[in-house]
Amino acid sequence: MTKVIKKAVSIIFVCDKKIFVIKRQNFLRAFPGYTAFPGGKVDAEDKVENLEATLLNAVKREIFEELAYKIKENQEIKKIAKATSPPFNPYCFETYFYLIKIATKESFAVDKNEVQEFCWITPIELLEQFNTGNRLMVGPVKEIVESLTQDINGLDFKDFDRAPPQLPQIEPFKGLLQILPKSNTIFPATRTNAFVIGEEKKVLIDPSPKDVSERDLFIKEIKNHSIEKIIITHHHGDHHQFSTDIARHFNIPIALSSDSFERIKKVFKDDYFIAVEVIILQEGDSICRWQGEDVITHHIPGHDEGHLGFAPRSLRWFIAGDLFQGVGTVVVGGEESCMTKYMQSLRKVIDLAPESVIPSHGIALGGTNILQKTYDHRLLREKQILELTKKRYSVDQILKNIYFGIPKSVHKYAKANIQSHLLKLKKENKI
Fold first, then answer.
1. Which domain holds residue 391?
2. 3 state SS of 8
3. CB neighbours of 42 closer than 8 A, spacing ≥ 6?
4. Is 195 helix (H, G, I), strand (E, B) or coil?
5. Is 383 helix (H, G, I), strand (E, B) or coil?
6. Strand 194-198 vs strand 308-312: parallel, antiparallel, or unpaired?
7. What digits encode the pLDDT tens for the residues 61-99?
8. Under a CB-based contact definition with an 8 Å cutoff, are residues 54 and 47 in contact?
């Protein structure tokens, strides 16, 4: 199914060599916690026959709604850039960026339903905050800020819809590169994030290209990154396919939990790791350095018994693997899964309160709202399953009642979730 790409506008106010930026609320569906410029999607009321006039209508309406600021007549509004969201992102926008110069720094009446923080700041200061890992940004915003450090009035028009690299990649935080090869994962996800993290010596987390062709592209893409070891979050194939090929190609070790090591050998045979050094990771182990601090290993079982997550000591971000999904939903099923432990792991990371969480499928998200939402949703599902079980509903009947409308191709995964909830309820003597 082709995604609908909506048009949107983003407005950069400039005054006295400073620009006005916002940090989006963590509970928003699209780009929560990201540093951005005010703006939003084009609405039906903005539309006229001419595209330029439509976009300007949207600029004026969004600025009034978000900042209570009314564009003055004959005020110069300069279009400086255009960028379309990559197809792997769940929310796709064709965004036009406009620059507006004003004489005095306005005390805008900011809409707190969308904005958690806002400030006037020089582009150099803002870029420094990104470069030290203190700002979450999409690529076009970062590049526009970089341009404004050279010319506060905006350089030539930038069209970011250029030919993308063969393997999509983004850098939500400086020094945390997210490469997105196609992988053999579960629909609707089609890619598994591979992360390159570190300072001089780097680690590569979860390389899992789907086939030989994608593997060769991936090897070519990372060859200049000084990777010293590969990390695997857990034993499922869409998190390590071809990882041993990559390890042998670069002559580097693979690090993972002891449980994942044994399960991979059981599923993929003992010779899977032939000619590869294996390092067993424990809770609290450091895997690399990022922004001058250790990145620490966290045990987060449930989806998979040996599942690991990683975060710097400052908890500015937390790579959560399949603890939650930015695309699709987490399956908790099979002998390696445990709903009780899964709920405990969700609670563990929520209580750690990292500033941002990053899944294996999807983009980084500000705060832990998505984890709390996932936790609450699982509790609701469990309540529904308990009530239907007391009415003597079968697993198939429960499926029809609480997972109605899902494609038949994913019924087996929904059943696995139901059975995991049933096991948890039995252990708790509730059924």
1. 381-427
2. strand
3. 6, 7, 8, 9, 54, 55, 58
4. strand
5. helix
6. unpaired
7. 999 999 999 998 888 999 999 999 887 777 789 999 999
8. yes
What's the one-letter identity of residue 78? K
**Looking at residue 43, which CATH number applies to its domain?**
3.90.79.10
Residue 415 half-sphere exposure, CB side, CA atoms within 13 Å? 10
Q: Strand ranges (DSSP E) for 219-304? A: 227-231, 254-256, 278-280, 286-290, 293-299
Structurally, the chain folds into a number of domains equal to: 3
Q: Name the one residue in this structure whose structure tokens are 């680690």.
A: 203
Rounded to an integer, what is the distance from CA 421 to the centroid of its chain? 27
Q: Are residues 81 and 22 in the same domain?
A: yes
Nearest Cα residue to 172 out of 333, 31, 22: 31
Q: Of 330, 267, 340, 329, whose CA–CA distance to 302 is shortest?
A: 340
Q: Please tell me the distance from the alpha carbon of residue 127 to that of residue 265, in angstroms, as a whole number.
A: 45
The model's pLDDT over 161-172, given as tens digits with 9 standing for 90+, comes to 766 667 899 999
Burial class (CB in 10 A: 0-12, 13-18, 19+), 165: exposed
Closest CA to 91 of 139, 38, 30: 30
